[in-house]
Amino acid sequence: MESSKKIKQQKKKVLLMGKSGAGKSSMRSIIFSNHVAKDVRRLGATIDVDKKRVKFLGNLLLDIWDCGGQDAFTESYLTSQKSYVFGDVGVLIYVFDVESSDFSASENAAPGNSNHDLQTFGSIISALSEYSPGARIFALVHKMDLVAAAYRTAVTESKSDSIRVRSGRFARGIGIYATSIWDESLYRAWGSIVNSLIPNLDVVEDGLRDLQAVTEAEEVVLFEQNTFLTVTRVGSLVGNENPNTDRYERLSNIIKTFKNSLSTYTESNSSHQFDCFTIKTRIFNLIIHRLTYNTYVLVVLPPGEAELQCAKLNILMAKDEFARIESVAEGADDEVKGKGKSRAY
C-alpha cells in the first residue's frame, strides 16, 4: 500500500462545557482515562478549567479544556476570560443534563434569563461566533438512561429542537447526540466528534481499502488504541449490508471493558494489553490486531483457517505502511525505506 499524501500534525482545542453536574468529567474519564461507569461517581466537581492533552493517532493532539460549570466560572468565561477561553477553538462540546430543571425550564425562558442552561449555551455560541467562527459544535443530551425507553426518542427530538434554536450560525452543522455512560451511545457520540477532527482521513482510508482488498474481508475497522473509539471503516458489499448499525460503538464498549479487565488481572497499566485476538466460527472469522503504536484494526472475514492465517500475514505486512503514515505526521523523514504494497497470499 503506497501513499503519496502526507498527514500534518494538528492541535485542536476542545472545549467541554455545561452546567455543573451535567456529567462532563465523568464522560471524559470514561473515554480518555479508562474509568468504568460505576467508578466515576467518586469524581468531584471541576474547579475552573481542567486541561488535558490527549494524543489521538499519530497526528492529532487534542487539548481538552474541561470547564467547570458553576455559575461563577461560567460568568468569568463569558466576561474577563472571554478571548482566552473561546479563542482558537476547534470544537465545542456542550453537555446538557436531560433531567435538569434548568434545561426543562429554559425551553420557554425569557432570553434575558441567564440562569437557565439554554440561555448560557446561547451566550457561549455568541462568544464562539466572535472568537472562533470556524469551530465545530456538538451538543450531548446526557443521562438518557434516566428517561423511560418509550419516551427517549420524543425527548431527544424536543431537546434537539430547542438546542438548534439557540445555536445561531452553527444551527445547520451542529451535531446533537443522546448519551449515557451506561451504554454504547457515549462511544457513538465521541467517535463522531473525534472522527470529524482527523485531518486527511482519506489517506488512512485508502490504506484500509488496500488491506480490505488483499484480505478479501467483509469489513475492516480502525480503532484508536487507548480509547478504542472508531476512527473509520471500509467494507465490501456484504459488510455494508450488516443491519446492526450500532456495532462499532458496541465493539468499542466491549473491547474497552476487556482491556480494563486485563489491566486488573495482569496488574499492567500498559495500553497494549494484547497484540492479537481472534474469533473463529462456522460463518465468519474475526481478528483484532495491533496495527501501529496508536491503532488496532478489526478484520471480519469469511470462515476458514487458510483465510484467517493469510489475513494475519497481510496485517503484519501492512504495519510498516501505516506506521510510515504516522511517522510522517509526527515530522519524521518523508522517505522510509522498505515500503511496499501488501499482497495477498
Tags for this entry?
11 strands, 11 helices, disordered N terminus, alpha/beta, 5-stranded antiparallel beta sheet, 38% helix, 345 residues
Question: How many strands in all?
Answer: 11
**Gap from first CA to last CA:** 15 Å
Global structural class = alpha/beta
Global mean pLDDT: 82
Report the C-alpha radius of gyration, rounded: 22 Å
Arrangement of strands in the largest sheet: 2-3-1-4-5-6
Helix content: 25-40%
Overall 3D shape: globular
Beta content comes to 15-25%
Number of alpha- plus pi-helical segments = 11
Write the H/E string, N to C: EHEEHHEHHEHEHHEEHHEEEH
* Largest beta-sheet details: 6 strands, mixed
Q: Any low-confidence stretches, pLDDT <50, length ≥5?
A: 1-7, 105-115, 331-345
SSE topology sketch:
Elements lengths: L9 E9 L5 H9 L16 E8 L3 E8 L3 H7 L4 H5 L4 E7 L3 H6 L10 H15 L4 E7 L9 H14 L9 E4 L6 H11 L5 H15 L3 E6 L5 E6 L1 H4 L6 H20 L9 E5 L4 E8 L2 E7 L3 H25 L16
Parallel strand pairs: 1-3, 1-4, 4-5, 5-6
Antiparallel strand pairs: 2-3, 7-8, 7-11, 9-10, 10-11
Helix pairs in contact: 7-10, 8-11
Structure in words:
This protein has 345 residues and is of the alpha/beta class. The protein has eleven helices and eleven strands. The chain has helices at 24-32, 71-77, 82-86, 101-106, 117-131, 152-165, 185-195, 201-215, 237-240, 247-266, 305-329; strands spanning 10-18, 49-56, 60-67, 91-97, 136-142, 175-178, 219-224, 230-235, 276-280, 285-292, 295-301. The strands form two sheets. Strands 2-3-1-4-5-6 form a six-stranded mixed beta sheet, sandwiched between helices. A five-stranded antiparallel beta sheet has the order 8-7-11-10-9, with helices on both faces. α7 crosses α10 and α8 packs antiparallel against α11 (305-329). The longest helix has 25 residues, at 305-329. The radius of gyration is 22 Å and the shape is globular. The two termini are 15 Å apart.
